[in-house]
Write a structure and sequence with these properties.
Elements: H1 2-15, H2 18-44, H3 58-70, H4 72-89, H5 93-115, H6 118-137, H7 139-142, H8 156-165
Helix pairs in contact: 2-4, 2-6, 4-5, 5-6
Length: 166
């Protein structure tokens, strides 16, 4: 019964509002572009498709050098590749969106505040717009997190999680 209701709800959503289908397509385009971008740039650190830019300002160069020297850059690149793969595979998408936000903010900040050239500013704005657009597309998945008074902690979430696995 539940499966039939979900299928009917999906069909109604697909056929219903004219903008609903267009919105879904726009979100998927953003998701797959962003996912491809992250996967490509994440893998580029390990399999060099193009030389990794050192930063086009002195401060950007220092920051990137420090991230590389401390090993944090490799972690970020691993995360970028994993997030990109998740988005392209259309699996665990809300988690991928949340994981991408700190990286997106860092990239945008670097490009908009530190680099300050037109391409860098455009890159920063595009990455934040895409990440934000994807978040809006999956807003219904995030709404439970936005509860002001969430009550007491409980094991209900663990039970639900493990029941889905088994």
């Amino acid at each position: 019964m539940e499966g039939a209701r979900q299928a009917a709800d999906k069909q109604a959503a697909d056929q219903g509002e004219g903008g609903s289908r267009a919105f879904t397509v726009i979100i998927y385009v953003a998701q797959f572009f962003f996912g491809g971008w992250f996967l490509y740039n994440g893998l580029n650190y390990f399999i060099e498709f193009f030389p990794q830019p050192a930063g086009s300002s002195a401060l950007a160069y220092q920051l990137i050098s420090a991230l590389i020297d401390t090993g944090l850059f490799a972690i970020v690149k691993i995360l970028e590749a994993i997030i990109g793969a998740m988005l392209l595979a259309n699996r665990l998408v809300p988690l991928a969106i949340v994981l991408a936000f700190p990286i997106s903010v860092s990239i945008a900040h670097m490009n908009i505040v530190n680099v300050q050239d037109p391409l860098g500013i455009g890159t920063g704005l595009v990455i934040m717009a895409l990440n934000g657009l994807m978040a809006l597309g999956y807003l219904d998945k995030f709404l439970p997190m936005l509860t002001y008074d969430s009550g007491d902690p409980s094991p209900a979430g663990l039970r639900s999680f493990f029941s889905r696995l088994g």
